[in-house]
Amino acid sequence: MSSEGAAAKRQRSNKDVPYNLIYWPGIPGRGEFIRLTLEEAGAEYVDTAQVEGGVDEVMAYVKGEKPDDKTNPPIFAPPILKHGDLVISQTPNILLYLGPRLGLVPGVEDDPDALYKVNELALTALDGLSNEPHDCHHPIASELYYEDQKEEAKRKVEHYVKTRLPKFLGYFERVLNSKASGEGPYLYAGKLSYADLVLFQCLDGLKFMFPKAMAKLNKEGKHSKLFELYDAVGQRPKIKEYLGGPRRQKYSSGLYRYYEEFDIEG
Ligand SMILES: N[C@@H](CCC(=O)N[C@@H](CS)C(=O)NCC(=O)O)C(=O)O
């Protein structure tokens, strides 16, 4: 067999299996960015959050017992994607892998650099609309309880809601008004990409975490395209079905969380 033929066979045998999402049960968390991508594509996947004892699998990775092979480096934190022999982590890295495979990035033949543009948008959303909200409730240390950093959290939230949140939403409204976004309602080239799913989940989490601020920003009308994108993604048949179904977990004490003292208008 030629080396090309062997590579193709290896590719088929390793990757012709369902995706495995390894993530903490009980919260949507960062796992949700991956779930929405798999759900929109109708991909077959197994999710530790839906499997009895799934948390043991997560712990095996966190403790370094897995992966135990010569090709995959140890994992720092979930979400983790296992696909055949491949084990990878870091949310945007997993999306970078899944996007082209699941048709959630324009094809290389039509637009060879699309992946880097879609990835740029996803990274920006994750920076400002996911990681920064996380730091609102954990501004000092992830290892400390929220209750041990409440004072700092209050200051962080005031800054975030008044300046960072409108800055990031304004940026995405500019993207949606740009020529590169195409005819709408999506971020890039008039087609749904995984960056739209990331942005949808960020907006959904922010609506839960900062309901007054988000309602005010919506009412002001300065981000109308952004909220149209939110509605359009939420109405996509597979996403709508998923959101209304049993696999969609409720927000609780994860990445996006509600505290009355965070619910300011800005
Ligand atoms: N940059 C990573 C962050 C991963 C992360 O912080 N995972 C959380 C759960 S959402 C975790 O378990 N962190 C453990 C830790 O940071 O020690 C990503 O985007 O995937």
TrEMBL record:
SUPFAM superfamilies: GST C-terminal domain-like (SSF47616), Thioredoxin-like (SSF52833). GO terms for molecular function: glutathione transferase activity. Gene3D superfamilies: 1.20.1050.10, Glutaredoxin (3.40.30.10). Residues 111-252 form the GST C-terminal domain. Residues 18-106 form the GST N-terminal domain. One of its GO terms (biological process) is glutathione metabolic process. It comes from the Eukaryota. Pfam families: GST_C_3. This is Glutathione S-transferase. It comes from Neurospora tetrasperma (strain FGSC 2508 / ATCC MYA-4615 / P0657).
